[in-house]
Every structure is written in C-alpha cells, then in structure tokens.
Amino acid sequence: MNLHVNANEVAAVLLADGWHEARAGTFVTGPFAFAGATDGSSADIGRQPGFRITTDEGAVITGPLSSVLAVRLEAAQDQERTPLQELAYRLDGRIVTVAGTEAVRFAHAGEDFEVWLGATKYGARWLFAAAGDREGAIDYGYAEKDPVDQVARAVMGDLKAGMRPGRSRSTTDHPSAD
User: What pLDDT score was predicted for residue 177?
Assistant: First the structure.
C-alpha cells in the first residue's frame, strides 16, 4: 500500500532537531545538489532526492529527503484554501512561480503541465499548457470567479482523452496567455 502525500498539504516537517512549520504550498521535492556560489557549478550528492520548505518566518530549509522523519498535514476540511491551492490539491500538483506568475504544476502520464490565472483579451482566465509552453495555452473560458473544480475537471478530462495543449492548436479559438 502506498501512502500518498499531497505536498501542498504539508504543514510541518519533522527533522532530527524537531518540527519545522512550513508555509502552505512550499514543500517541494527534487534532486539534491549544492550549487557553486561563484562559478555556477553544482555538486550532485549521489543523485539523492531532496526537499525544500519555506518556514513561516521566511527561512528556507533544504536537505536530503531521507532526513525527513515525518510530515504533518493540514486536514483538508479544516483549512480555507485559495483557488490556486484548491487547484493544486485537486490536480495533485504544487504551486510554482513562472515568469512572475503563480501557477499549479502537475504531472500526468510522465509529462508536466501548468494551470494559471492569466490575462487574455477576455480578462483574467484560467489557462492550461504543457510546462514551458505557454504560447500553446488552452483557455477553457473559466474566469477568476468560476469554481476551480470545473477547471480541474476540464483539464483532466482532456488529458485522460489523450488531448494535450500545444502550439498546434488553433489560436483563434484559444487566446494566448499574453
């Protein structure tokens, strides 16, 4: 049995020195490496998985994932989520900042995708694209005030049907994110 943990619900991590509170949505995992301060080099630490959190005080804690002894989750029914946090929860993704805009990045079938609230000729709308390809974004027509569960259902419905956002889509039907 796998115990899946939604990274956006991690409220604290237990390390050898005790519990460390985390800002909502800041727990992330990835390869652990040290980057050179002056020469830009990096030292891969044996391909270990790592983690990073930002504390409520603004400090950043990072280290090998094996140093995390436990995580404390916020109960979903006890917390009020922002629309972006709710979308991250529903897509099992994480909140990232891309080009100055917060987005939800999530993986499906080995590919990374992003959903964000972007400016279109129709106003602020939820947009969906392959990670790194915002020119190929899909605008489903959901505005900022629309329930994010509708956005999540539309995105996952397309992905499960084998449809992917990309540059080959007609830009006349789908306004770009810019």
Answer: 46
- The Cα–Cα gap between 7 and 54 comes to 13
Sequence-distant (≥ 6) Cβ neighbours of residue 52 within 8 angstroms:
26, 27, 28, 29, 30, 60, 61, 62
Question: Exposure of 144 by Cβ count < 10 A (0-12 exposed, 13-18 middle, 19+ buried)?
Answer: exposed
Divide the 178 residues of the chain into consecutive groups of 10 and give the mean pLDDT of each group. Answer: 75 93 87 67 69 89 93 69 86 89 91 93 93 90 87 91 70 44
> What is the reported pLDDT for 139?
92
Q: Spell 72-94 as b/e; 16+ CB within 10 A means b.
A: eebeeeeeebebbbbbbbbbebb
Instruction: Give the per-residue pLDDT at 99.
Output: 84
How remote is the C-alpha of 6 from its chain's centroid?
10
Query: What global pTM score does this model have?
Result: 0.53
Contact 101/118 with Cβ under 8 angstroms?
Answer: yes
Query: Alpha carbon 118 to chain centroid distance?
Result: 16
Helices 83-91 & 148-160, crossing angle to 10 degrees? Answer: 30
